[in-house]
Amino acid sequence: MNLPAGILFAIVLLSLCSHAKPLHPQACSPDGSSNENDNNNDQQLHHRSALPYVRFKWPSDGLSTSSNNAEFEFHNVPPDSVTERLLSLKITTELLDNSLSGPKASASETTTKQTKTLTPEELSFLLATSDSTYRESRTLSLPLDFGTETSEVSVTAALTLYGNAISESSVRFTYSPHKDYYEESAPPLLLDNAHVAAVHRSLAMASQQQSKLPASILSLPGMSGTTFRHFLNNLLSLVPFPSYLEIGVWAGSSFVSSIYGNNVRAVGIDNWSQFGGPKSVFLENVNAFGSGSTVSFFESSCWNVNHNELKKNSQKFSVYFFDGPHEVLDHFRAIIEFYEYLEETSVIIIDDWNFVDVRWGTLAAFEGLPLDIMYEKTIMTTQNSALDETEWHNGVGIFVVKKITS
C-alpha cells in the first residue's frame, strides 16, 4: 500500500521516539528544542535511549485510579543485565494532598513521602519471572502503598545501572481507594447520522445494563467490562448493515457479545500468542453463542494476516474493534493498515484508552487520513483490570468516522 509522505514521516518519527525520559541523551520536542519538564508518561516524544530505561504504563498522568498497582515498562533491557543483576529500581511515592475526602491528618500522623528500592537481586528475579513481555520491553506490576484515604499522589521511578541513575519517569494522579468511577468526554451529537445515533442509543442502553446478552455471556472470563459487552451487543443490532471486524479476540468475551442475537458478518483475527492464548475457549464460546451470524477468523498476527483472503469478500466493515498489541506504532498501524476495510461511514472502537501510547498512536493515524471524525466518546476508567466485573475494563475510545472522497 502506498502511503502519503506525511504518514511515512509520522511512522519514522514514532519509531525513533519514545516518551520515557533517559537521563543522558538530549530530549527532543517536535520543534527540535529540549524540554526538561517532560518527564511523565503523557509528554512530548523523546529519542530512544541505547541504555535501559523505565516508564510508567499505568496509571496515566492526571488519571484517577482506585487501584494501588503501578505498572512499569522497561525498554532496552539486555538479558545479561537481568541474569547478572545489574539493574535496580528506586520508587518514590509522595502524597501531595490527603485531605480530599476528610480533615487533613497532622504531620505526625501522616507519612507524605515513601521510598521503595528493588535491589538488583529483587528486580532481576521479578523481570526474569515476569510473563508480561512485549518486543523489546518488559512490564512489571507492583503494589504500592498510597494509604487508605483519597489523595493526590506523585510517583517517581528511577532506574540505575551499576549504581548510576540512567533513567527516570514520574506520574501524578488521584488515588480514590473507595470509589470506582470513570471519566468520559464527548462532543455534541449529530443524531441525524444513523451511525452516531446507533452509538448514542447503544451507550444509553448499556449504562442501564440493557441488551440481549444473557448472564452466561456477561460472566464469561475476558478482558472486557460488562457495560462494554452490553454496548457492543446493542451497537451491532442498531448500526446500519452490521458487519464486524475484531483484532485481538482472546477468549471471545467481546466477540460473542457483538454477535449474540444479531445477524452479523463477523471476522476475528488473533494468533493467541499472549496471555495464555485460549484459542480453544474462544472456539467453544463462538460455537455456544454465535448462531445466526456468519463468522470467520484468521489465526494470524494482524500484521501478517493474509490480506488477499481478507479481501475475498468485498463487503466492508461497519464496526471495527482493535484490541491487539498496544504500543504507539501498533495503534498507528491498526488504523492505517485496516482503513481500506472500513465502510464509508464506520464505528472504530479502541480498547485500553487509559494508556497514553494507545491514544497517541490512534490520534496520529486519524490526523494522517482523509476522514472526518463525526463523533467521539472517550472513557477513562479508574481501574486497569481484566476482570469481567468491571464496567469498561481499561478505558475505551469510540469514534464514528466518515471517509473523505475526492
Major beta sheet, specifics? Answer: 8 strands, mixed
**Gyration radius from CA atoms, angstroms:** 22 Å
Globally, the shape reads globular
CATH fold annotation of the largest domain: Rossmann fold
Q: How many individual helices? A: 11
What structural class results from the helix and strand content?
alpha+beta
Helicity level, as a percent range? 10-25%
Whole-number mean pLDDT: 78
Q: What do we call the CATH homologous superfamily of the largest domain? A: Vaccinia Virus protein VP39
Strand tally is: 20
In spatial order, strands of the major sheet run: 13-19-20-18-17-14-15-16
Walk me through the structure.
- InterPro entries: SAM-dependent_MTases_sf.
- Keywords: Signal.
- Helix 6 packs parallel to helix 7, helix 7 packs parallel to helix 8 and helix 10 packs parallel to helix 11.
- It is globular, with a radius of gyration of 22 Å.
- The longest helix is centred in the middle third of the chain and has 14 residues.
- Helix 8 links the parallel strand 15 and strand 16.
- The protein is an alpha+beta fold and 406 residues long.
- The two termini are 18 Å apart.
